[in-house]
Design goal:
With about 200 residues, the protein is α+β, with helices and mostly antiparallel strands. It is built from six helices and five strands; from the N terminus they run E-E-H-E-E-E-H-H-H-H-H.
Length: about 200
């Protein structure tokens, strides 16, 4: 599971005639060879802009491209957050991250800044997020709880299996004791008959 690119994009607006603008972005292309990284970053930026332009206000969507997914959320203030990940990355976590990116950005920058921005701005929170969200289980509390539940479920299955084995063993012991009990009763009756025919002095 890998998050490759986070971007905050202001898509083009036909009313104000403003062009699409990437406000801030951060990439983690360390898994690619050194000579490919520049090209990969350019593709990721292009992919995020393309997805942002095709995301409607208030919409959350996932777009697949080869082995990657772009998860996008466009808020009511015309700000779109795009998270590009590999195929295994959980979509719910990526869309949650997109919403969180918008929340954090709008805490620092108002709507007027978003509409009038003409270039990229540094936004250190994206760098923190791309590091933190490489392991979605650590970043997302629901996934962490789900993982703990899965681990607990495995332990419970093992416990139930051992209890069933123990129960089977107990059933076998009860059957044996029933057999032993009936054999003991037979032995007692036989011994009583044998002892009754002879009188010992």
């Amino acid at each position: 599971m890998k998050a490759y690119h986070l971007a905050l994009v202001r898509p083009a607006d036909s009313v104000t005639q403003r062009a699409t603008q990437v406000l801030s972005s951060e990439s983690d292309v360390s898994s690619f060879s050194f000579f490919q990284r520049g090209s990969v970053e350019e593709f990721l930026e292009f992919f995020s802009v393309t997805v942002a332009e095709r995301t409607q206000v208030g919409q959350r969507q996932a777009v697949e491209e080869n082995e990657n997914f772009a998860y996008a959320y466009r808020s009511s203030n015309n700000l779109c957050a795009v998270v590009i990940t590999d195929r295994e990355y959980p979509g719910r976590v990526a869309l949650g991250l997109a919403a969180k990116m918008i929340d954090e950005y709008t805490k620092v920058h108002d709507d007027r800044f978003i509409e009038s921005a003409t270039g990229k701005t540094g936004f250190v929170v994206l760098k923190e997020f791309i590091g933190k969200y490489q392991d979605p289980k650590q970043a997302d509390s629901i996934m962490r709880v789900q993982q703990e539940l899965d681990e607990t479920k495995v332990v419970l299955h093992k416990t139930i299996e051992s209890l069933l084995e123990r129960g089977e063993k107990l059933d076998a012991l009860v059957d044996r004791s029933n057999q032993l009990s009936s054999q003991s009763k037979m032995f007692y009756k036989t011994a009583k008959k044998t002892n009754s025919c002879c009188i010992v002095m």
